Every structure is written in structure tokens, then in C-alpha cells.
Amino acid sequence: MSRIAPSAWLIDASIYVFRAWHSLPDEFSDADGHPVNAVHGFARFLLELLEHQRPKHIAVAFDVALEHSFRNAIYPAYKANRDPAPESLKRQFEQCMALTRGLGLTTLADPRYEADDLIGSSVHRLREHGLRSIIISADKDLSQLLDSADEQWDYARNQRWGHAEVKVRYGVHPHQMADFLGLAGDAADNIPGVPGIGSKTAAALLAHFDNLDALLQRVEEVPFLRLRGAAQMAQRLRDHGAQALLSRRLATIACDAPLPDDFALAQRRAHTAELADLLDQLRFGPMTRRRINALGG
User: Fold this and answer.
1) Which of 88, 94, 217, 278 is most buried by its number of CB atoms within 10 A?
2) How far apart are CA 57 and CA 142, in angstroms?
């Protein structure tokens, strides 16, 4: 039997911070009276993961490039459909980052690169050193990173899938995911794709042509495919080919984002000396403090 490579856990933090922000009442406040419901909810998720998995290698990625990532320079309308985060939520993001640092977890954030890019860069760095990655996120974009040994885990739904299962979930293989989004677009990120081409059609086209470049080069073959409206589809591809390529560029995760100097192999470290003061500031209760202490540090 082949030996399973050691695992590194890479957390897409923003989704869990947002989930706590929306699901918990703002009855929690810090020592200055500011709401910390998102911080408390995020802490519950994080402590549960640490208790159950006891990871030796773990990194937590945060989105701070919300309005000025390198993608906004390419396409100013990128994520323009999202409302700006309120100041209270921005403050709590900072507190969540302080908490992960205090717990000795490698914390990733960059003003130009999104959490997806920081995770992608981590996956490639860790893979070079023989570690497989378990990506904690429900975001389908991240499935493009999966190699044969990697996994993705939608923690809230307790659904896990690997490289082979991506095709079952989305109709395309991991290496086709960016092409898939280039064609179908992604409303959540305001990526336009090609008008009139949805996910099923995009998957069918990639099943035949394998990649977007081949599809655009051989667009004259499209009318002869056994697809409904194939002739009109070919015309849309002719008219919006450049937009498809732009959309693919926006959907492609960068794997060369800068990682912190102390990243190493994202080893979990001891709790920092500042953690106790931070817990006081966040007004964490005795039960949460006991859980943190039990994790060691």
C-alpha cells in the first residue's frame, strides 16, 4: 500500500467569518463595546477543527484585497456587485486575524492577492515538500488546485471531495475549472463569461474540446455538435471570445502570490505572549479559554 502524504490544512477564512457574522446575534461585545459576534463564531469553528484534526501544518487565509486586488486592475467591475463591508465587520476581520496569529497559526493576507491566491501559492509550496493539502472551503474555484492527493472540504456541510470527484460535482476536471468559469462566468464574483452559455453547456463544450483555447480556435466545428442551439452558440463564442479569455484570467488562481517569510511549511507554533491580552479584549469566556489552553501552546 502507498503511504499517504502528511496533510496541510488550508482554511479559506472569509466564508466562516461571514457565516458567523450573519448567523450570530450581535450580543457579544469586546472590552470597548464593539460587536464581536463574527469573531466568537469564527473561534468556535476554528477550535472545533483544531480539536478534532490536531493539524501539524495549518494556514488561515484572509481576504483583505476586497476592492484593490490585481484583478480589479484587469477588470474594474470585478466583484463590483458586492456591497462594501461595514466598518464593524472590517474590525472583526482584523480581530479574527489577530486570533489566528495568537493561536500560533500561519496567517495569510495580502493587499493585492485574494485568499484563493494565497491558498493556491501555499498548495504549490507545500506540494514541493511532499505535503498534500486539505482546503477548507465550499468555493468551487479552489477545486482547480486539487492534485491526485489533495482534498477539499466544505466544513459546514461536511462534504469532502478529491481530484476525481470534481468532475462529478461540476462536470469538468480540475484543470478545466478556470476555462469552465471563463465560459459560464461566475455571478458571485461578477465574472461575465459568455452570454447565453451556462454551466451545462460549458461542461459539454470542454468535454469535446478540452480547453478554451482549442474551443476558440476550432469554433467553426461548434455548429456540428449535437448541442441545442449550436449555431447560435458558435456565434456567441465568436462575438465574446475575448471576454471568455478575460473571464478565465479572472477565474484563474494565482500560485505565485507572496507568502510570509516565516511560512516555512506552515507548522503550527506555540501560542503567542499576546494571546492572553487578546482574549481579555475579546471577552472570551472561561469555557473557550479552557479549550484554547487544552490545545497547548
Assistant:
1) 278
2) 19
